[in-house]
Amino acid sequence: MNKEQLHRYISGSTGNESNICQIYAIKDGEEVYEDCWHGFKTEDAMNVNSVTKGVMSLLAGIALDMGCIRSLDQKVMDFFPDYTVKRGEKTIYDVTVRHLLTMTAPYKYRSEPWTKVCTSRDWTLAVLDFLGGRKGITGEFKYATLGIQILAGVIENATGQKCIDLANSYLYKPLGLPERILHGESSKEDQFDFFMNKNPRKNEWYSDPQGTVTAGWGLCMSARDMAVIGTLVLDNGKFKGKRIISEEYLKDMTAPHLKLGERFGNMNYGYLWYKPFDDRDVYAAIGDSGNIIYVNKEINVSIGMTGTFKPRVYDRVDFIEQKVLSTIC
Questions:
Q1: Which residues contact 51 (CB under 8 A, 6 or more apart)?
Q2: Alpha-carbon gap, residue 67 to 62, rounded angstroms
Q3: What pLDDT, on a 0 to 100 scale, did the predictor assign at position 1?
Q4: Would you state the pLDDT for residue 89?
Q5: Which ranges of the chain have pLDDT less than 50?
């Protein structure tokens, strides 16, 4: 499939690919493919959903490199000395930063408490109220979009900087990408619009009333932004020869720390990044509606892809491998 055929295929799709807005690919350090649909332009941004988690993992690595986080095995409660733990709760004292990054932290809920957290004044503290539980640390994978909000608090309390400032200074600016701004509103209606609106957005990041970014969703990026971030993973933490994140952390971040079940395509999980195949150097930060950073070290390719809200569209790895790679390799 050549580039023209791929464009027509997506334009005419009525299935899972019908919501694709942008694809941007970088190979061997050069742009090799860029295309847009639904009126989007290359520079337009959109809420990339859980790809946000992958960027949060990079910020955690930066804080670790700075020495602000001593170790990934440092206890989460070290970063919240003024937090009042609920009576009888003991497990919370055993939770580490690594548990957050691998989604093995335990929580006291069956389904994520969206309303309680997202109507609170401080989303990080609201989620902390649910951390822990009677079962203790089991090592069980528990996907927690709200739970990862705690990581934002860890990073901010460790570095003394807001996550958005850290991201702009140590990630976006060094990569030559537009700086992000806070979205600045947090009503129920606005949150719904943020997920559902199919128009381009600013280079923004959703936040709580304290100005702390949403750690599990809400970062707005273009496919180009994501492809450039992917090159950082591709080159083991360097960008155009300049060290941005330590190679040690990047290798640890993409290592297969957990084997996931059928619900997650039997992929491996690192630190908020996926390793889709057991025996291949392919990695991805994946979000709902098909938003993805795809990194293939075997052929030195990084691909960003955005998509507007579409239910039950999750993993675009197979689509990239079957349809997109043939246009650029």
A1: 219, 221, 226, 285, 286, 287, 291, 292, 293
A2: 9
A3: 85
A4: 96
A5: none
By C-alpha distance, which of 160, 196, 155, 141 is closest to 69? Answer: 155
Pairing of strands 204-205, 181-182: parallel
**What confidence score (pLDDT) does residue 135 get?**
94
Report CA Rg, the chain. 19
- Judged by DSSP in three states, 166 sits in helix
C-beta atoms surrounding 137 within 10 Å:
15
Give me 236's structure tokens: 């083991």
Output the six-digit token pair for 215.
């750690």
In the prediction, which pLDDT does 267 show? 97
Length of the chain: 329
Is 155 within 8 Å of 63 (Cβ atoms)?
Answer: yes
pLDDT value at residue 185: 75
Cβ neighbours of 296 (radius 10 Å)? 22
pLDDT for 19-69, tens place per residue?
A: 999 999 999 999 999 999 999 999 999 999 999 999 999 999 999 999 999
Residue 158, C-beta contacts closer than 8 angstroms, at least 6 positions apart: 63, 68, 69, 79
> How many C-beta neighbours within 10 Å does residue 160 have?
9
The tokens for 277 are: 């195949």
